[in-house]
Design goal:
Strand order of the largest sheet: 1-32-31-30
Helix content: under 10%
Low-confidence stretches: 1-24
Shape: globular
CATH topology: Methanol Dehydrogenase, Chain A
Strand content: 35-45%
Oligomer: single chain
Largest sheet: 4 strands, antiparallel
CATH superfamily: Quinoprotein alcohol dehydrogenase-like superfamily
CATH architecture: 8 Propeller
Distance between the termini: 28 Å
Radius of gyration: 20 Å
């Protein structure tokens, strides 16, 4: 999906009492933003003062690590709710200006093999959907934990079409169930999770018709990344076999790079120029590869590779600015794990600052917006010469393993207990 130009971003408008108007400009329509790289196309604004950011609304959001997506005044996320006595995944659409629920539709039973915990210890993660819905053209696309893909009308909640990837394409789920989010690429919605010859699937986003299927890879929890390398648009999947890059127009395989798998891979690939970074926890570590193209032939060359968890991302995908990675580089360091700055070309750690846990960051201009796993919003400078914190505020109860959203002059964030919206200072 192409980035929105700054000129298209409409700033937040407020009435005298601080109540937001009904229409919200700007958008964050898919997991990790308009371009799928965690970069906001609008300016974050000045840091808030000691009182913290102005809260515009806060509503319950029961269980889940799904992030909030926003388009055309609609905000969407996945939660777990009771449906006739059965814990069930729901896609929820809210008015982005007020937080008022517009509609909620059940997906399938919420049962996460190996997920959650007993509520004790440092984790206290709870359970719930890990996938984030995508919005495009007045529709919401949700990919459930059971490999069930849905398209709903964004305003009414009417079901437009649905697919059972496990049943119809031989998909086999994994421990902790599916966590990947649907990728909107032009008129396609792309997912992974099918079986032999259908590991990667592209559907017409309006009709649901299958446009192509490809390869035999085994799904992980990592959402694919769309990027342009050497002038060629491609979608990069991170599977149990490693990296696989495909042409989004026809599913043709462009290049592969093997990468070790152990237990779970959950962070998405990160692209900077012709370098692709990938990482996993459980002792796997991070690595970067330079992708080359000679004629019609593609290849990848390892630039660096680490073992262990020093340069590793469990599920927190970093952002990249000027060849430097910024994000939560840690493994199961709940509550206080560090944010780090890492050179993408060498793997060198340039600085590290504890106090975040496995939350997530996004990039806005020369600033980072972080959501710590204990519910703090933090603004910091995106610079390689040292950590500089500009603002911090505790804004949410519950565990936050989701990614914050910046859209229309507002910050959207959620935890396993609640979702909230905050004004960005001008």
């Amino acid at each position: 999906m192409n980035s929105l130009s700054v000129s298209r971003v409409v700033s937040l408008s407020l009435v005298l009492a601080g109540i937001c108007v009904a229409e919200t400009g700007g958008e964050w329509p898919s997991y990790r933003g308009p371009s799928g790289d965690g970069v906001a196309p609008e300016v974050l604004g000045k840091p808030w003062d000691s009182a913290g950011p102005k809260q515009l609304w806060k509503v319950p959001a029961t269980n889940g690590f799904s992030s909030i997506t926003v388009q055309a005044g609609v905000a969407a996320t996945l939660v777990t709710r009771d449906d006739d006595g059965t814990p069930t995944e729901f896609v929820v659409a809210m008015d982005a200006a007020s937080g008022k629920e517009l509609w909620a539709k059940p997906l399938r039973m919420a049962k996460y093999q190996g997920g959650g915990d007993d509520g004790t210890g440092d984790n206290k993660g709870g359970d719930g959907p890990r996938s984030t819905p995508a919005l495009a053209g007045g529709k919401i696309y949700a990919y459930g934990a059971n490999l069930d893909l849905y398209c709903f009308d964004a305003k009414s909640g009417k079901l437009v079409w649905k697919k059972d990837v496990a049943r119809d394409y031989g998909g086999k789920n994994i421990s902790w169930q599916n966590a990947t989010s649907p990728l909107i690429e032009g008129n396609l919605v792309i997912v992974s999770g099918g079986g032999k010859g259908a590991a990667f699937l592209a559907f017409d986003r309006n009709s649901g018709a299958l446009k192509w299927k490809a390869e035999d890879d085994t799904i992980t929890h990592a959402t694919p990344t769309a990027a342009e390398i050497h002038g060629v648009r491609q979608v990069i999947f991170f599977t149990k076999e490693g990296l696989a890059s495909l042409s989004p127009s026809d599913g043709k395989l462009l290049w592969r790079q093997s990468y070790r798998f152990n237990v779970s891979t959950a962070a998405s690939p990160v692209v900077w120029d012709d370098i692709v970074y990938c990482s996993a926890g459980y002792g796997v570590g991070g690595g970067a590869y330079r992708v080359t193209k000679k004629g019609s032939e593609w290849s990848s060359e390892e630039l660096w590779r680490t073992e262990g968890n020093d340069v590793a991302n469990h599920w927190s995908t970093p952002v990249v600015k000027d060849g430097k990675l910024y994000g939560m580089f840690q493994f199961k360091n709940y509550g206080n794990g560090p944010v780090k700055c890492v050179d993408i070309a060498t793997g060198k750690v340039l600085w590290s600052q504890e106090g975040f846990g496995p939350g997530n960051v996004i990039l806005s201009g020369d600033r980072l917006l972080a959501l710590s796993d204990k519910g703090e919003l933090v603004i910091m400078a995106a610079k390689p010469d040292g950590y500089e914190e500009l603002a911090r505020a505790d804004v949410l109860d519950g565990k936050c393993w989701s990614t914050p959203t910046l859209a229309g002059g507002r910050i959207f964030a959620r935890s396993t207990k609640e979702a909230a919206c905050f004004a960005v200072a001008e």
